[in-house]
From TrEMBL:
One of its GO terms (molecular function) is beta-carotene 15,15'-dioxygenase activity. Fe cation binds at H190, H251, H323, H537. Belongs to the carotenoid oxygenase family. The lineage of its organism: Eukaryota, Metazoa, Chordata, Craniata, Vertebrata. Keywords: Cell membrane, Hydrolase, Iron, Isomerase, Lipoprotein, Membrane, Metal-binding, Palmitate, Sensory transduction, Vision. This is Retinoid isomerohydrolase. It catalyses: an all-trans-retinyl ester + H2O = 11-cis-retinol + a fatty acid + H(+); all-trans-retinyl hexadecanoate + H2O = 11-cis-retinol + hexadecanoate + H(+); lutein = (3R,3'S)-zeaxanthin. GO terms for cellular component: plasma membrane. Binds 1 Fe(2+) ion per subunit. It is found in: Cell membrane. The keyword Transferase does not apply. It is a lipid-anchor. Its cofactor is Fe(2+).
C-alpha cells in the first residue's frame, strides 16, 4: 500500500510504528569493500547523473563500549552513483583520529558529543593521571555534513576540525584544524556556498579575557595560483553574545543578498563547565549545555559588504533552532523562515540512542515531554520609526508576522506559523538552493519526524501552506535533496533524492528514492541488499558535482 497523498494545511500524523522498524537506523553496519549495484524500478531520468553523498553515524559501539547519543557514532560516508539510468552504492568510514584510535584500542578514546572517553584501564595510575592533565582532545568525528571548499570536499562536525575526503573513492585525505587559520573555536556544519564557490560560515569565538562573540567567516573560492583557499580565510563580521561566559549553541544561520541573519537561542554553552570539563572525569559536550529561562530568543543582523553589525535588538519568545529554511529581503524587511522547537529545553536532551531505540509507545511518551516543532516565518523591519511605538511595523501584505517597537527600544517579533502538527516536525529542510537561497521563494522540502522518528518526506508551499507528503508503511527516509531538471526554470521542476530504510523488505531493505518534486510521486527507486544507518546531511550541489 502506497500512501502518497496530497493534503491541505495539515499532516494527519496518525501513522504508527508498533513494529519498531526505525530501530534499524540506529544499528552499526559494516563498510563495503566495493560498490554494489542497485536494482532499479521505474526510470532514473537520463539527465540525473553524478554522485549523491551523505554522512551520518555508522558505528554505535566499539569493543564493549556503547556510544550513547545520536551524534556520537563514528562517521560513515554513503555514496550513490547515478549514470545512464544505472545506480551503484558504496560506503566507507572516515578515518578520523576518533575512528582510527577507537579501532586500534578497541574502546572509545576521544570524547564524543554525549559519550565520555575514559583513560585506558590497562595503563598504570601515573599515565592515567597524565592523560587527564594533558586535556581531553576535541573530537574530529565528522558525521554531520560534507561541503566543498575550492576543489575539495570536507566532512565536518561542529568543532574546529574538518576532514578532507576524496568524493570518488571516499578515502580520507587530511585533517584540517580551522584554528590555524581563523579565530573560532568551531564552526557550524551548515555553511552557505555562493555561486562562485565562496563559503560563509559562523562559529563561536572565545576570545582573550573570556570575551565572547560569534564570528562569521569567509573562505574564498578556487584561487588562480591554485593555493588552498582555506589559507585565505578570514573573519568578516562579529555578532555579540547576549551573556558573558555563556555563548548560545548555533547550528545554522541565514544569508540574504546583503545580510547575515543570526538567531541567538536560549540554549547556552556554560563555558566554565566546558573548560573545566576537560580536566574533570566523566564529562562530555552534552554536560556543558544549559537553558537560559528568561532571555527568550534574539535575532541579529549584519550587513555583508562591508561586514557590519546592525544593532536592532529584535526579541521573541524562547525556541530551539537547528535549521534555517531560507531568508530574503523584501522591500524594507527581511523574511526569515525557520524550523523551530518551542521553549528553552534543549531538544538534544531527547536524542539519546536509548530513547530513539525504545519501543514505539515509549518513544511517543518521551517525545511528549520535548519541545514541540513548528515552522515559522519571522519578519524583521529594517527601518524603525521611533514614533511608532506599540504599532505593528510589518507592512508586507502577504504575512501575519508582526514586529512591534517597545518602549525599552527592543522590537518584539511574533511569527506567522507556516506548519504546525503536534509532535510532527517538518525538519531537515531543503530548498532549490542554487537558484533561491537568499531570495523570495515558494517551496521548502523536508523530512517529517513523527515523535522524532523520520517517517515521511514533505513539501511545503510557504506562500499558501499547502503540504504534500510521501509516505510508506514501516519506511524511514532521510533528508530529501532537491536537484533541478537542467534547463528548466520553475522552482519545483526537478527531483527529490532520499535514502530509505524499509526493514520489512527481506531481500532489499534499503533504497535510493527518486521523487518528482512537483507532487512527490515516485519516479524510480534503486534497491540494495543492505540497510543504512541514519544520515544527517549532504552537499547541496549534487548537480554541479554530477
Ligand atoms: C535524520 C533523522 C534523525 C532522527 C532523529 C532526529 C531528531 C532531530 C530533531 C531536531 C533536529 C536536529 C538536527 C540536528 C542535526 C545534526 O546533525 O546535529 C549534529 C550536531 C553535532 C554532532 C554537534 C556537535 C557539536 C560539538 C561537538 C560541539 C563542540 C563544542 C562545544 C559544545 C562548545 C564550544 C566548543 C566546541 C568544541 C565547538
Ligand atoms: Fe543540521
Amino acid at each position: 500500500m502506497v500512501l502518497s497523498y496530497y493534503v491541505f494545511f495539515a499532516s494527519d500524523g496518525r501513522v504508527e510504528h508498533p513494529a519498531g522498524g526505525y530501530k534499524k537506523i540506529f544499528e552499526t553496519c559494516k563498510e563495503l569493500a566495493e560498490p554494489i549495484e542497485a536494482q532499479v524500478t521505474g526510470q532514473v531520468p537520463q539527465w540525473l547523473t553524478g554522485s549523491l553523498l551523505r554522512v551520518g553515524p555508522g558505528m554505535f559501539e566499539v569493543g564493549d563500549q556503547a556510544f550513547h547519543h545520536l551524534f556520537d557514532g563514528q562517521a560513515l560516508i554513503h555514496k550513490f552513483d547515478l549514470k545512464n539510468g544505472k545506480v551503484t552504492y558504496y560506503r566507507k568510514f572516515v578515518r578520523t583520529d576518533a575512528y582510527v584510535r577507537a579501532m586500534t584500542e578497541n574502546r572509545v578514546v576521544i570524547t564524543e558529543f554525549g559519550t565520555t572517553a575514559y583513560p585506558d584501564p590497562c595503563k598504570n595510575i601515573f599515565s592515567r593521571f597524565f592523560t587527564y592533565f594533558q586535556g581531553i582532545e576535541v573530537t574530529d568525528n565528522c558525521l554531520v555534513n560534507i561541503y566543498p571548499i575550492g576543489e575539495d570536499f570536507y566532512a565536518c562536525t561542529e568543532t574546529n576540525y574538518i576532514t578532507k575526503i576524496n568524493p570518488e573513492t571516499l578515502e580520507t585525505l587530511t585533517k584540517v584544524d580551522l584554528c590555524n587559520y581563523l579565530s573560532v573555536n568551531g564552526v557550524t556544519a551548515h555553511p552557505h556556498i555562493e555561486k562562485d564557490g565562496t563559503v560563509y560560515n559562523i562559529g563561536n569565538c572565545f576570545g582573550k579575557n573570556m570575551t565572547l562573540a560569534y564570528n562569521v567567516v569567509k573562505i574564498p573560492p578556487i584561487q588562480k595560483d591554485k593555493s588552498d583557499p582555506i589559507e585565505k580565510s578570514r573573519v568578516v563580521v562579529q555578532f555579540p553574545s547576549s551573556e558573558h561566559f555563556k555563548p548560545s549553541y548555533v547550528h545554522s544561520f541565514g544569508i540574504t543578498e546583503n545580510y547575515f541573519v543570526f538567531v541567538e537561542t536560549p540554549v547556552k554553552i556554560n563555558l566554565l563547565k566546558f573548560l573545566s570539563a576537560w580536566a574533570i572525569r566523566g564529562t562530555n559536550y552534552m554536560d556543558c549545555f544549559e537553558s537560559n529561562e528568561t532571555m527568550g530568543t534574539w535575532f541579529h543582523l549584519a550587513s555583508k559588504n562591508p561586514g557590519e553589525y546592525k544593532d536592532y535588538k529584535f526579541r521573541t519568545s524562547a525556541f530551539n533552532l537547528f535549521h534555517h529554511i531560507n531568508c530574503y529581503e523584501d522591500q524594507d524587511f527581511i523574511v526569515v523562515d525557520l524550523c523551530t522547537w518551542k521553549g528553552f529545553d534543549f531538544v538534544y536532551n531527547y536524542l539519546y540512542l536509548a530513547n530513539l531505540r525504545n519501543n514505539w509507545e515509549e518513544v511517543k511518551k518521551s517525545a511528549i515531554m520535548a519541545p514541540q516543532p513548528e515552522v515559522r516565518r519571522y519578519v524583521l523591519p529594517l527601518t524603525v520609526d521611533k514614533k511608532a511605538k506599540g504599532k505593528n511595523l510589518v507592512s508586507l501584505t502577504y504575512t501575519t508576522a508582526i514586529a512591534v517597537l517597545r518602549s525599552d527600544g527592543t522590537i518584539w517579533l511574533e511569527p506567522e506559523v507556516l506548519f504546525s502538527g503536534p509532535r510532527q516536525a517538518f525538519e531537515f529542510p531543503q530548498i532549490n538552493y542554487n537558484r533561491f537561497n537568499g531570495k523570495d521563494y515558494m517551496y521548502a522540502y523536508g523530512l517529517g519526524l513523527n515523535h522524532f522518528i523520520p517517517d515521511r518526506i514533505c513539501k511545503l508551499n510557504v506562500k499558501t501552506k499547502e503540504i504534500w507528503v510521501w509516505q510508506e508503511p514501516d519506511s524511514y527516509p532521510s533528508e530529501p535533496l532537491f536537484v533541478q531538471t537542467p534547463g528548466r526554470l520553475e522552482e519545483d521542476d526537478g527531483v527529490l533524492l532520499s535514502i530509505v530504510v524499509s526493514p520489512g523488505a527481506a531481500q532489499r531493505p534499503g533504497y535510493l528514492l527518486i521523487l518528482n518534486a512537483r507532487d512527490l510521486t515516485e519516479i524510480a527507486r534503486a534497491e540494495v541488499e543492505v540497510t543504512f544507518p541514519v544520515t544527517f546531511h549532504a552537499p547541496q550541489n549534487m548537480q554541479e558535482t554530477a
